[in-house]
Specification:
2 domains; Arc Repressor Mutant, subunit A; 266 residues; six-stranded antiparallel β-sheet
């Protein structure tokens, strides 16, 4: 046990995380976040493979999370329980921006009769924190909590464009882009140029790069001092509008909505 503690301490020191970093908590969170739309149910072995941890460690984490009510299990397969929504609810309830962004999405959806969403940057992903869809949309359409690789999405590109030059360069340097469709741009120089263009023009348009058959148009949401804190997006099927029509019809209301949010986000 002493050797294990010494090894953990040496690992923390090398990683620069410091003595207050709780390895057990980090491992538990890693196990919890291993579940997603592609991994709705998993065995202990499945989870251990994804998080790259020993089975014994994963077994303890799964048992603890199940006892706390965040996982359900039939004895073999584990899945997230509804209690996990409390974590997202706590964020949405404590983040004042989420309420303002949701109201903006609701208004935009009524105005243009298309799906509208708002997202924030979460590492390499753009995470949706507000969403509104017309009644014709299926209830299974992506909503709050949906995540998409930021490099391929209009939302993500305006968010990354809002980072400072050094932070943006660091973000791109660690990125390992993989094609989501045949149209996805994965060349690092091309991505850097697209992000730079989004920053200069004040919007980004992604044409079937994140999902075939869909286009999205996004603008940054800035707070009072100009800092980008979120992005507003309109997504449509390609048969409903060309890229030019999207810019002509949807960019003006998006920009107005973002301007209206300036004094309501922090």
């Amino acid at each position: 046990m002493t050797r294990l503690r010494t090894a953990d301490a040496e690992k923390r020191q090398k990683s620069g995380l410091g003595p207050d970093f709780l390895e057990a908590l980090a491992r538990g969170m890693g196990v919890l976040t291993a579940f997603d739309s592609q991994h709705r149910q998993m065995t202990l072995s499945d989870v251990a493979r994804i998080v790259d941890l020993p089975r014994a460690t994963v077994r303890r984490a799964l048992y603890t999370l199940e006892q706390l009510g965040y996982l359900d299990s039939d004895g073999r397969l584990f899945r997230l329980s509804p209690k996990v929504m409390r974590l997202a609810g706590a964020y949405l309830g404590s983040a004042g921006n989420a309420t303002a962004l949701q109201m903006a999405c609701d208004r935009l959806c009524l105005e243009i009769d298309e799906a509208c969403s708002a997202a924030v940057l979460d590492g390499e992903m753009a995470a949706m924190v507000a969403h509104a869809s017309p009644p014709r949309f299926l209830s299974s359409a992506p909503g709050i909590g949906f995540r998409v690789p930021a490099f391929s999405a209009a939302l993500g590109r305006v968010l990354v464009a809002g980072l400072g030059p050094e932070a943006r360069a660091a973000w791109l340097a660690t990125l390992q882009p993989q094609a989501l469709t045949a149209k996805t741009v994965t060349d690092r120089d091309e991505l850097a140029a697209a992000i730079e263009k989004a920053g200069q023009e004040g919007y980004a348009l992604s044409d079937q790069e994140a999902e075939l058959g869909f286009r999205s148009l996004a603008v940054p949401v800035r707070r009072f001092d100009g800092r980008v804190v979120a992005a507003l997006n309109i997504g449509i099927r390609i048969e409903r509008a060309t890229p030019k029509q999207m810019k002509d019809d949807f960019l003006p209301p998006l920009l107005r909505a973002a301007a209206d949010l300036r004094d309501h986000v922090v």
